[in-house]
Amino acid sequence: MTLAEWCVFGALLLYLTTIASIKWIRFRSFDNSRPRDPAFYEDAIAQRALGAHQNGIETFPFFAFAVLLAEFRDSPQRLIDELAVLFLIVRIAYVLTYLGNRPTLRSILWSIGFAINLGIFFMPMLKRFLPM
C-alpha cells in the first residue's frame, strides 16, 4: 500500500475516534441502545465532537476518491503521498480546533484541507506540468 492509501485509512480512523473518544470518556452516560440520543450530545464538547465526526464523514469520500483517482491515473506518487499526509495533518488540526471551540481557525483549516483535496483530485489533469 502507498503512503497516501494509509492516509485514507488514517482519515477513516480519525473520524471514528473523534466520536468514540467522547463515548469512551462519558461511557457511564452513553446508552448504546440509543446511540443517537440527543440528550447525550447536550454537553458542548460532545456537540463539537459530534460535529467534527459528521464533518469527517462528509469529507472522507472526496479524499478517498481523489487519492485513488490520482493513483489510478499515474500521477506522481510522491506528490500524492505528500499531499495526503498534509491533508491528514490538517484534518487532525481541524478536529482539535473543533473540539477546542476555535471556529475561525477551524474554517481556515477546512478550507486548506479542501484545497489540498482539490489539488489531489486535479493532479491527473495537471500531471504533465508536474515533476515526475
UniProtKB/TrEMBL annotation:
Keywords annotated in UniProt: Membrane, Transmembrane, Transmembrane helix
InterPro entries of this UniProt entry? Answer: MAPEG-like_dom_sf, Membr-assoc_MAPEG
What parts of the sequence cross the membrane?
A: 6-25, 83-101, 107-126
Name-wise, this protein is: MAPEG family protein
**Localization:** Membrane
UniProt lineage: Bacteria, Pseudomonadati, Pseudomonadota, Alphaproteobacteria, Hyphomicrobiales
Q: Which organism is it from?
A: Bradyrhizobium hipponense
* Gene3D superfamilies to which the protein is assigned, alphabetical: Membrane associated eicosanoid/glutathione metabolism-like domain
According to the UniProt record, one GO cellular component term is:
membrane
